[in-house]
Amino acid sequence: MKTMLTTVSELYDAVQLDLRQPPASAFSRPERQSGLIGLIETWFDRARFREELALMARDTPERIDDIGLTMEQARTEIAKPFWRR
Question: If you placed Cys at 5, which of 10, 21, 40, 46 could pair as Cys (CB 3.0 to 4.6 Å)?
């Protein structure tokens, strides 16, 4: 399991993520499960992404700007509960 987003493009892709169609990458599953299991996976991915974004905003805020987000946009995304897109 991947614990941190390591490139600017990965983070940017994650921010633009439409979880109905997960992006293809070396770290994603070939197909997302449907039903309850898929929903739980989606929620877990959102929570993990927002936690990583919060760590990045705290530890290296200049990287937030590098990916084309403002700190306000990052804070808004971080503040969302895992069940919200």
Answer: 10
